[in-house]
Amino acid sequence: KSKARQKGDVLFFDQSINEQVQHDFLLEEELRHALSRDEFYLTYQPQHLIDGDQLHGVEVLLRWNNQSLGQVPPFEFIPLAEDTGLIHEIGLFVIEHACRDIAKFNAEQGQQIQLSINLSPKQLIAKDFINQLVKRVDCTGLSYQSITLEITENVLISDLVAVTPVLQQLRDLGFSISLDDFGTGYSSLSYLNTLPINEIKIDRSFINKLLSSDQSDSLVKTIIAIGASCHMKVVAEGVETNEQLQRLAQYRCDIAQGYLLAQPLKFEQLCERYPSSQSAINSPA
Ligand code: C2E
Ligand code: MG
Ligand code: MG
Ligand code: MG
């Protein structure tokens, strides 16, 4: 009896592994064709200055709508894109289209907003990355100063030696560098001084517990103070309630991003949500 059951368990186990392998295989196969089939699109999540509540910029977030798998979330396809090397082409697609959109937004809405782009460290350390980046940006007329490149803290530290000189070159060109998901990694305060970083994004897990955990509260307060003393902008991710926003204002956090302000929006929605400023409408043609 016990043998049969063991056998059954093993079979069941094998099947689920098999299904996982098949799913991964399908995912990879579909990902290889996603660009040519035009299945990617971009969304933009607004970032507001906390003091004055005005639009500071947007973070571009990639979306994939596949013909057979439907909507696939970034946490599933970004790691796969990194493992397969597809991230290079996909990343350049994001850069090109986001810069074009935001240049258009600035021109038509009479505003000058910041564009934040997520980068995988694999992209950063690719030989020709900076050339490719600059080429794409130059075509759109967007200034390097209006672009912030976000790098996740964890992966940055693990590739520190390779990544640091690239970040320095990007800073020298005028790009801003943001440390994403701050607080979740193995960060040491010394990195903040040695790395060419001018923004930190407090991970949304801390904002989530801001009102319910004293520990999160003091951590957030401390991160904001450290950011200020290092002359960095501090962004809070995942702001979902007014209470969180008020607490962040009290601690003098610079910028907020989250569902309270807006979900990630398609470009048309972004333009509707933030129409031309009065001064732009009244300015002489
Ligand atoms: P991230 O850069 O930390 O982006 C923030 C994530 O939090 C986004 O998830 C966003 O939709 C979500 N979010 C924003 N506000 C709230 C909120 O108030 N509550 C909650 N619960 N969530 C909120 P998303 O779009 O699923 O992206 C996940 C991750 O995928 C991103 O994390 C980023 O690391 C990566 N990613 C997205 N687009 C790209 C891309 O173009 N290139 C690369 N390399 N990575 C990307
Ligand atoms: Mg990000
Ligand atoms: Mg983040
Ligand atoms: Mg995050």
UniProtKB/TrEMBL annotation:
<protein>
    <submittedName>
        <fullName>EAL domain-containing protein</fullName>
    </submittedName>
</protein>
<feature type="domain" description="EAL">
    <location>
        <begin position="24"/>
        <end position="278"/>
    </location>
</feature>
